[in-house]
């Protein structure tokens, strides 16, 4: 690898912290080699105390290694010149609490030597990008943890860095923020930025990282391409929409000729909690519900976009959220792996074929490679190694990244649900022990165990305990109605519970602590005939728009009256309100004492004085 091809290169790095007397105390990192290729997203992982921060500090030039050599952007990390090309989000952002969001970025912009025009324009773009445009004039000290994190991210991007170092970038962010930051990382990666990140949230790293380095006890435990490290070499997966029972049985029969039935699994893919939650938030946002916290960020700031790549405008974060969300909705079991997202091309493909070994040179010669064939947005199928899905040999056009047009590859692998399994597994594999999983999108999940009878639930302990079990004959009976598997998004209107409250017809406004408002519609179906409408101005507790009904025997209490008096200190006699009041029991009948009446008058006087 030439010098231009990597951004960070370290060899034999070691850091020993010493005690007061200069005696070695802690070996924080030992003999670490690290190479971060240019334009890659590099994940640094390890448990607490593994040495991640120490390594980051060495890369940033904040610490000197006890031994070893390191170059960052072709220079010694302590060279001040390279700092201009680096952005850093520390684990904890130290920001001036009394400065507003805008002032903070202006302050750092000046330190970075940006001109005033640049500072102004980048500040606006960044605050919008990280979802803080509603808080630009609020002091950073008042921000929630997640908002502070977003602020730190904006600050790290202010100088449009070539190398971005992010220490726990998603820590403390809500799921929307996490997805946005991940999308932002992916987008920046696509635009040629090199990103080094650490996180304890492994799923987040998995979603974005190309390369991984895992530390434990200060030493490297594993390193390499995320794809090759994480791929399960012993399974193949093919995903497809629901097919008829007969087709599935045919497919299974075919599979059983070469695999023990206990190793075949059919399940309904679950939607991830992240997707479910994001859908929920999207629904609420679409309804126009408001929040005083951070909002969804916008696309990547214009100045962060690579000029040479303006055509990929649709990949800005805002769009990506829709895009990736949609992808996951369609294909819930496919994790949003970094490579899939990073390499996502216009998705006009119907047939997606992945094979980790096929991705590596010489893989075509390894017939046992586990193969994953997926049809766009729907079906996933896993077959065993040594099955006849060694597609690269038979079809060199198949891409490494699941974006080939449907008709470009193996026509017998077209995602025709009824035939896919049969045709992709013509029964020639010789390794029957491999596990196969067949899952149909959004509907059915099936697990079979080796040599057991698929028709018997008892004899097939691996049959999953979900909807498949509803068809007690476990011979792949597919439920026709999968409604119980559909995500049921909660609806604030429903949740405000028409018909069950004591005041059923009232349009209710509920606000959650400091953030969101839900509004429900009035329930026009109220059948409580014993209720009578009371003028809205007599319902001080409820909102003015509320058409609340009280029982006939409802007494106008002293308290109600006092509140009413407070609200209407001078009530003209000929107003509708006064007429309505006239139909109610007169004040003396309520048993107001002289003292109470004086009190009412005093309140009116006080109010009048207060107003004037
Ligand atoms: N300044 C220091 N003086 C002495 N020991 C230190 C110092 N900084 C770190 N260490 C020690 O070095 C080891 C690695 O620490 P480091 O902070 O790099 O771990 P980490 O992987 O970043 O952990 P975490 O995930 O908890 O942030 C730990 O045992 C830690 O106590």
From TrEMBL:
The keyword Transport applies. Residues 330-358, 369-427, 445-482, 489-499, 506-528, 542-570 have a biased composition (Polar residues). InterPro entries: AAA+_ATPase, ABC_transporter-like_ATP-bd, ABC_Transporter_VariousFunc, P-loop_NTPase. The keyword Nucleotide-binding applies. GO terms for molecular function: ATP binding. It holds the Pfam family ABC_tran. Residues 287-592 are annotated as: Disordered. Residues 8-242 form the ABC transporter domain. Keywords: ATP-binding, Nucleotide-binding, Transport. SUPFAM superfamilies: P-loop containing nucleoside triphosphate hydrolases (SSF52540). Residues 287-301, 433-444 have a biased composition (Low complexity). Transmembrane segments: none annotated. PANTHER family: ABC TRANSPORTER ATP-BINDING PROTEIN ALBC-RELATED. This is ATP-binding cassette domain-containing protein.
